[in-house]
Structure prediction request, 410 residues.
Amino acid sequence: MMNPVEATNWYFRKAARLIDLDEWTVRRLLTPFREVKVECTIRRDDGTFSTFVGYRVQHDHSRGPMKGGLRYHPQVDPDEVNTLAALMTWKTAVVNLPYGGAKGGINCDPRALSTSELQRLTRTFVEKIHDIIGVHTDIPAPDMGTNAQTMAWIMDEYSKFHGYAPGVVTGKPVELGGSLGRESATGRGLLYAAECLFADEGRRVSDFTYAIQGFGNVGSWAARLFAEQGARIVAVSDITGAVRNPEGLDIPALVQHVAQSGGVAGFAGGEAFAPDMLLAEPCDVLIPAALGGVLNRDTAPGVRARYILEAANHPSDPEADEIFARHGVTVLPDIYANAGGVTVSYFEWTQNVQQYRWSEQKVNAELRETMRQAYADLRATQKQYQCDLRTAAFALAVSRVARATNLRGL
Ligand code: NAD
Prediction:
């Protein structure tokens, strides 16, 4: 089984061969622009000290300022941050945002830190990296373990050094320059992407049944928005359990249940089943919206869906892809399917730079247009190279970044 680092490089090299990329450009695109490691020592609430290691990897900036999340998690390590930074370069290029890619993280367990400890840690981290991030250089955003509050602290600390600069981070609270529509953006982008995919076959979102793994931000918004279009969501799982109902789950009621109880377990509108069976549920469309690596040589043969919409990052590995290709399963790849989040982050940054606020309606309309245009580009690339959609997405992204790199010159 390939780890995410190996898999990303594998997809990159496959696309590079397909578009006949020269070895010099391959080398340049595989090497990150800058990798920074800092040690952050903070005073704990009980008067003792702790030191945490933080990273920011800036992969490529040939197409614009670098963009990518900041993760607080005990498993953050340089290899993982490196891979995720490269994936951001390819993701922003697929949807043609004027950005490059970056990623960062702090090796810590955010649940073991108090709010004031998290604030001190975040401010210490910014103190050490403020001269390499910026509105026109590198713009962090929330990721696992960080949220709008973290972004507010980063903006405040950064502004102490450089003056008021809301555009230095996205995913901020709306009161501090965050965008309307950001919270639902990844689920909504997935819906627009699915509409394009199904329209190619003369079908609609409401023609199919769906199973969704994960009911957090992305999974729950996807469930709500697909159900509003008449889709039947027949199974949902999260860390607490799984529920199924072949007639279709009542999603607004499930959202309310999760808000009250903290998870899908115990929902009365369906039958409980083992969450690890979710991927093998009978349905037309499977939406992995939780963890990476869940679809692999062990689980892929059991998938009964005809379509997979990759809402999570890196849910399938190359071995799973091969199995899906043999079984005639169409996979809409993560670097396109879940790009709605970074797209609305771009709209947030645009509003900050312009000092002008968009309506939610405008945000959603622009998101739809971005997803549609990217889909048209993806299909055209697929036709040109006669390949699957993931290879086409990488080929499209790598060729855009390579062209920008070579136009800039040495
Ligand atoms: P989240 O933390 O809000 O939700 C994660 C969900 O997954 C929760 O419901 C959790 O209970 C569930 N889960 C965890 N372990 C599970 C397991 N073993 N089985 C079933 N469910 C499990 O996270 P999110 O923001 O919704 O992100 C989900 C995925 O989408 C991640 O892979 C993330 O990288 C990706 N993604 C998120 C965004 C975004 O804008 N939030 C954008 C692009 C990609």
Observations:
- Residues 33-174 form a domain with the Rossmann fold fold (CATH 3.40.50.10860).
- The mean pLDDT is 96.
